[in-house]
Amino acid sequence: MVDALVIVAAEGILNKALSMAANVVSIALGYKEKLTELHDTLNMIRAKLSDAEGKKSTELQLQDEKVEPAGSSYRLGTVPYLDEFKIVGRENDELRIVELLTNSKGDKLTIVPIVGMGGIGKTSLAKSVYNNHKIEQHFEVRTWLCVSVKVNVDKLLANIYESISREKSKSLITVTLMENLREKLGSKRYLLVLDDVWDEELSYWDEFRKCMLQLNSENGSCIIVTTRKLNIRRNANIEDSHILKSLSDDESWAMFKERALPLPELEEIGRDIVKKCCGLPLLVDILGSMLRHYNTDKGKWLSIQESEVWDVEERGRVLSILKLSFDNLPDSMVKQCFVYCSIFKKDKVIDREELVQLWMALGFVTTDTTGTKEMEDLGNDNIQILVNEFPQEMKNLISLRHLVIESHLLPPKDVGLLTSLRTLAYFQVGRQKGRQIEELGPLKHLGGTLRICNLEEIGSKEDAVKADLKRKPNLNMIEYLWNCCDEDANINDKEVLEGLQPPANVKILTVEKFSGDSLPEWAMKMKIKTERNWTPLAKLVEITLTDCHNCLNIPMLEDLPLLQDLVLRNMDNFGYRSILEGAPFFPKSLRH
Q1: What's the CATH architecture for 247-327?
Q2: Full DSSP string of 447-515
Q3: Sheet holding 565-569: strands in order across?
Q4: Does domain 74-85+90-243 have CATH number 3.40.50.300?
Q5: Any idea where the domains of the chain sit in the sequence?
Q6: Per-residue pLDDT tens for 86-110?
Q7: What is the pLDDT of residues 134-184, one digit of tens each?
Q8: Fewer CB atoms near the end CB (10 Å): N or C, the chain?
């Protein structure tokens, strides 16, 4: 398995990096300090690849690997939101755990391990339990942490405090942390999920459990632990445990079919592929999602069915299937770019523009042979390809800051979970859950340009308000776009636009194919309504109204001292004479 990665990494990183990076990185980009760091990193990669190449395949299998992550001890990557697809084959497991948690005795802290091998679905089951309606009603406080190899009890307590309080812990002293947690929790019943606890980490468990016993341990509070090893029970003196088994062939097929959407003539091949997954949900998910892109290509399905990855021992198949998905990336350039990202520490927030520049400096992005695209565009295309290859994972990237989507592509679902997002240039409203306008609500840090399309899909003003645009002060340009302008097309255009009030700092507003005969009150006044009065959009420099065929008037402009451009296109029912009549009220800044 390692051979392909060694070739890509060695050729892409080791042969090109040092020869090209010196001039381009240090001179063109000003990354002199990064060059030394890059040199050290590449030496590290060379050593690890050489070591990996010399190992036997059995030493690389997932079940036995002992990987030391490069980042912090607590990952932000796994979040307690339900996956896009409904969980399959775990309904009874969920019911049992929910019953166990809601009927827990009041005189002790109930700890429930969900135990199983990697890829068996422990985290998915824990998410489903966490979001179960009965659990939401039963526990006053719920919090979720993903734990990695390096474990420190004080740090773990601090992360629990930060997750509950939404504020940074000022101390890493156990006594202080416990006092802070007691203050925040009071007498509330809590559920804590510790996801991905490894066997090697359990020396901390007794100390941690003693701490948690001091926090409402007599009111039915509970802890869920997902782990690969059963002996966590012995170390932690846990009351109950839940061991996950593999999915049946029928359950695996149901899961695969939902992801791959196969044609009837591909069912026999698909069922054989699924059977070879040995009931591991992770493998079924990876292959189903990959083959969805080839759901009319029988040749591709046959190549997967007959692939040599199935010759690997059962416990090593997870890595083999991951390699298979890597092999199916479009070309060597995309593969090199993907492999390069492995040098970043876990949870590293990677700036999109900086990443593209680094790819270019290292020679991973080459000039388009047709000469129609710049290297920066090709780099951005690679990012888009990688994003599109893993759409179901987008919602887990809660530290993602910039997401640039081409207007012809359907944006990923559940972007509202990407709460660190700073850039979302394009959002297409849909009716399906996860694509509705409310997804914009939690994105408090959005800035720059936001283009909102398909506004006809918003049902009411109340739905539109959930986007909470006026509380996004970093947005300076907003485009409101409908698909058509027709008197009968959408009778609530005015109400929808009323609910999409912009922030006070906005500089450019565009409205296209609005079907109403008059703009809503805020758009006519060019002011946003606050609790006590109206605040002018005083920083506006440009207003554009396009294809608003039914609109009879234009906004009032006298309170817009910085306005430079008023653009009116295809305003069929608008009386342009009213512009001249209103000329005295135009701001002096307006360009003629």
Answers
A1: Orthogonal Bundle (1.10)
A2: -EEEEEE-GGG---HHHHHTT-GGG-TTEEEEEEE-S---TTT-TTHHHHHHHTPPPTT--EEEEES--
A3: 426-428, 448-453, 475-481, 508-512, 542-546, 565-569
A4: yes
A5: 74-85+90-243, 247-327, 400-585
A6: 678 899 999 999 998 988 766 678 8
A7: 998 899 889 888 776 566 788 888 888 888 887 888 888 888 889 989 888
A8: C
